[in-house]
């Protein structure tokens, strides 16, 4: 990857003149069968640009109560888009067509916000890497068509879902109006996310990115890493999932652990007994040089990725025995 980065041909992406950025955007748009794509510095930026492009001030966005766009993007829906949220209580972050249909705001009600976006997350970070049944997404899509509301996907870890289900990016491209994918998580790039959508959505997003100061130059060095990752790092995500399942098994035997969430992909969430706080437990793990994050009351999260090998797994078992 680093060799590909050093060899990249670069230019000014603010002017649309960076050949490697253009190649990455074209590659990903083709992969998903979508019209256009925009390379950005982070998944927060691609999500926020999508929300900004789809909504107007006074809108609401329907999403799960644990969505990244709501919990972890600094109130961006309100700050960047002057819009509100309607939060649903999903099954490990997965919301249903039925739940959505119940809360769509009636457009002619002046008392209410106007629903202008529905946003799903797949895989779901707070749900412990859970992923959707595509049939549920199809039912949600139908509602979006019927009510003329765009559908966005926070697909920061979409490829983790795809390697498990055998579904294709193209199937997802047909179901969503915009998709954000991250290159910097399981795919192992130093930086980078892409927003995919129609030419119209991406044109708007490009303008908002510039306004927010997110236009960049010589970004081709980073885009080259993305091209390398897409060519070489998708298939191997399954290895991360296998190691995550082993980690889940290790923690299920620990006396401090009350519950391990089902391990579906590369995220392991454990719920602790009340005998130790999540902060203390993370500190205890850090003293063994095991990195985890506290993830809400009694919850700790572990993530596997391409730098976590079988040797690390063996070492982890040893340190926890
Ligand atoms: C589901 C999800 N969406 C979006 C993001 C944001 O990505 P970034 O950290 O690149 O802003 C994250 C980051 O962890 C995430 O887990």
- What is the overall number of helices? 14
Strand content: 15-25%
* Number of DSSP-assigned strands: 11
Task: Report low-confidence residues grouped into runs of 5 or more.
Answer: none
Strand order of the largest sheet: 1-7-6-5-4-2-3
Structural class: alpha/beta
Q: How far apart are the termini?
A: 36 Å
Blueprint of the fold:
Layout lengths: L1 H5 L12 H14 L3 E5 L2 H12 L4 E6 L3 H4 L4 H6 L2 E5 L8 H7 L10 E8 L12 H14 L3 E5 L2 H8 L3 H7 L2 E5 L10 E5 L1 H13 L8 H13 L4 H16 L4 E4 L6 E6 L5 H10 L5 E2 L4 E5 L6 H11 L1
Parallel strand pairs: 2-3, 2-4, 4-5, 5-6
Antiparallel strand pairs: 1-7, 6-7, 8-9, 9-11, 10-11
Helix pairs in contact: 2-11, 3-10, 6-7, 12-14
The structure holds pyridoxal-5'-phosphate.
The site of pyridoxal-5'-phosphate (PLP) has 12 residues, from helix 3.
């Amino acid at each position: 990857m680093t060799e590909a980065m050093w060899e990249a041909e670069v230019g000014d992406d603010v002017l649309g003149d960076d050949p490697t950025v253009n190649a990455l955007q074209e590659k990903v748009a083709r992969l998903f069968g979508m019209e256009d794509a925009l390379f950005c510095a982070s998944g927060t930026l691609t999500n926020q640009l999508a929300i900004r492009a789809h909504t107007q001030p006074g809108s609401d966005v329907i999403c799960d109560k644990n969505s990244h766009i709501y919990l972890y993007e600094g109130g961006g829906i309100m700050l960047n888009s002057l819009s509100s949220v309607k939060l649903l209580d999903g099954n490990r972050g997965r919301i249903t067509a039925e739940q959505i249909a119940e809360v769509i705001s009636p457009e002619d009600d002046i008392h209410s916000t106007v629903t202008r976006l529905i946003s799903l997350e797949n895989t779901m970070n707070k749900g412990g890497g859970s992923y959707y049944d595509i049939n549920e997404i199809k039912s949600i899509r139908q509602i979006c068509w019927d009510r003329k509301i765009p559908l966005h996907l926070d697909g920061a870890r979409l490829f983790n879902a795809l390697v498990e289900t055998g579904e294709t990016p193209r199937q997802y491209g047909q179901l969503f109006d915009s998709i954000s994918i991250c290159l910097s998580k399981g795919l192992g790039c130093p930086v980078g996310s892409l927003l995919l959508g129609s030419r119209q959505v991406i044109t708007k997003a490009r303008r908002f990115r510039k306004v927010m100061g997110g236009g960049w130059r010589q970004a081709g060095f980073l885009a080259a890493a993305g091209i390398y990752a897409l060519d070489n790092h998708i298939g191997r995500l399954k290895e991360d999932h296998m190691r995550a399942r082993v980690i889940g098994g290790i923690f299920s035997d620990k006396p401090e652990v009350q519950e391990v969430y089902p391990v579906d992909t590369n995220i392991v969430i454990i719920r602790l007994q009340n005998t130790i706080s999540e902060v203390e437990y993370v500190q205890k793990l850090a003293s063994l040089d095991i990195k985890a994050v506290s993830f809400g009351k009694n919850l700790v999260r572990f993530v596997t990725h391409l730098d976590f090998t079988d040797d690390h797994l063996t070492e982890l078992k040893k340190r926890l025995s």
